[in-house]
Amino acid sequence: MSNSAQIPIRIVVAGGNYAGLNAVKYLYASLLATPPNEPVNTATRNIHITMIDRRDGFIHYIGITRGLTEPDYGAQLWTPYSDASWLKHPSITFHQAAVTEITANNVATITASGESSIIPFDYIIIALGEGRFAPIGMSSLTKSDFITRLDSTYQKIAAADSVAVIGGGAVGVELAADLKCDFPTKQVSLVHSRALPLQTIFKDEFRQGIVDTLCNSIGVDVVLGERVIQQTPASDDMLAAPNAEPDFIDATSDNVKLTLASGRTMCADYVIRCIGTRSKHLTPLINLPLGSFLDADGIRVKDTYQVDCAEYTHIYACGDITNISEVKLAGGAMYGGYIAARNISRCVLRGEGAELEEGERFPSKIMVLMGRNHFALQVGDEIWDTERTRQYITDDMGLKSCVDGVGFNGTPEYMGL
Q1: Rounded to an integer, what distance in angstroms lies between the CA atom of residue 316 and that of residue 13?
Q2: pTM above the 0.85 mark?
Q3: Which of 83-97, 198-212, 239-253 comes out lowest in average pLDDT?
Q4: What residues contact residue 243 under an 8 Å CB cut-off, 6+ apart?
Q5: Cβ atoms within 10 Å of 215's Cβ, excluding its own
Q6: Is residue 60 a contact partner of residue 398, using CB atoms and an 8 Å limit?
Q7: Spatial distance between the Cα atoms of 343 and 363, rounded to a whole number of angstroms
Q8: Tens digit of pLDDT for each residue in 136-156?
Q9: Residue 89: in which H helix or E strand, if any?
Q10: SS3 content of the chain, % helix, strand, coil (to 5)
């Protein structure tokens, strides 16, 4: 890889949320931070790191459902990158733009104003995540616009007497719970096409417990085993632009009549569809002649978080965009960013033959937060009891721990390899 006096070793991180920002943090800690009591001048290292994201800040997506029902909390979910002083290091550049193509040694981007760029790299970490339909996903590029959009959704929720959430994954469950807890007099319904909410990898006992909590403790009307086959009026945004990024597609509707597969009909003043994620369109986004590591479920990666192709050992991927078969969680994304950053740092400092770390594979787990007072956790095959789970519950839905974890609590300290 390039390391002449004129051309630095160029590391690009595409994506700046849980996985990407954490990767940049650990690249800084391993390559740019000053080691304590050691005569190593990292300022002389000929390295440059570029982080690319279309937004100007980090979003704590774990809290987004409550952010829609509690605007003051929602405003805290966006932390501008400018709040991390270490990102202003002369060897780090933040490029605010959308990624349009990744080739073997270059990234193509386009800014909101239409300016195109080609950014060369020697190493890249692809951490672009997956998209969710608005208002769970957000097309905002700035915090001010993010707050405006949150408030717009909040005003529609507040004005509605009845709200229906379609989709009983974790996000749909948490949104229905937050809606009913923050607006207890509203009629809140959760409609899910399967017999129980959440993925089938979790125990039926755990999933039924969530239904019981929603119905009996919170007061949500849970409708299971019913698929919505017609919505009147139809959602124009959902039908249009099938290849568009989901963050730009509004999955809400006003004054809707829903027809279910059984023939039952439901009416709601406001409907929010929580129908999961949509993977990035990896082709032609990733334009590589030997791109056999692209699966329907995402980028196939090795335990080192390199893409699963011997010809592209300098290309890494982590977070939701990968095909790792675990439930997509912030902690897993941050861990992948950490391993990828550590391995690139090893290659930079020790050469291409360096021994790389292999990430662990953890059991599937999920924590479901239902309002402020109800929660459920399954780790592997074990359903945790209330008291054991309570130690991991925070009133801010993990906001401070995640914001601190990705590097907003001060300059990252040196980390040896």
Answers
A1: 9
A2: yes
A3: 239-253
A4: 281
A5: 13
A6: yes
A7: 23
A8: 998 999 999 999 999 999 999
A9: none
A10: 35, 25, 40
